User: What shape does this take?
Amino acid sequence: MTEQLTVGALRAEPGTKTRGTVSVDLGTLTADLPLTLVNGSRPGPRVVITAGVHGGEFTPIDAAARLTTLLEPDEVCGQVIICPVANPPAVYQGRLNISPVDGVNINRVFPGDPDGSPTERLAAWLFAHLIHGADVYIDLHCGGIDQVLRDFVGYRLTGDPDLDKATSELARSFGIEDVILGLSAEGGNSHAAAARRGISAVLVEVGELGQRDGATARRRVDGLFQALRHLGVLDPDGATGGDVSEWVWAAGVTAEATGLWYPEFSAGDDVAEGALIGRVIDPADNREHKVHTPAGGRLFYGMHGLTVAPGDELAAIAAPWDPDRATRPADYQTPGLGVAPDEADPRS
Ligand SMILES: [Zn+2]
Assistant: This one.
């Protein structure tokens, strides 16, 4: 038998599923988090799945909500905790990556600060009550309302060979063709902070432009079922994840001027180092700032919005991962390389 599962005031006995809301005190306001606890009747790992860490990312929320209704405790080995809306102020009031409450992107401040701003307190609560204690953490995102994106699974190398191997295998299990790794587990992303605590953690990015799309949500639920089978939480069905290409973050390109952005690429395009990927035009005098990519590779996400300001991320490029080169980190670890661009960009 498994043990009782509790989060806040919610409780699920072994072999039961509990759905409800947990109120989290953020200092100046309270956030009500929807949570589903599925406590299996047989032992196994504890898996935590979050969506809605960012606002404006509808498909992951849709997929996580669907999963809460589909998972039944008598089919589960271990425990699954699902939070479809991890950041209610950003999801319900802003539809942006930053919270309208304090302007903070929660996915830059994990593991949070219990005495900090409301968003920092929320991160601290999520980290202490959901993520800490998990064996596996899956964080669901997609391209925001102004981002094009090619689907990928991301994770961070920690230097612990057993953990990195387990996470690599988990990343391959979702049925998503491209897996991108970051060479360091530094930074305030939830999956990076989890990896630093020895939790096998992945970021799953499926969908773009903040679109709601039932077919994509169902595809993502299928991927989650495959991952749960891989983890032994659900019984295997004989299917495999399929072939995967591995990448490492190579460059994030940011705007240097205010103006109108005219990209010349689509998400998923392969580009050579130095290639022109777009122009920022000053609407006052039509002055043009050409934007070139500092690294060759594949464009995994890019700015779709017309209006940009200095520092806005225009494109993120990953290069094919060659594990043999990992022994020569200088190849990858020049400044800004090998770090998920989701880390570097204050907006996304
Ligand atoms: Zn996101």
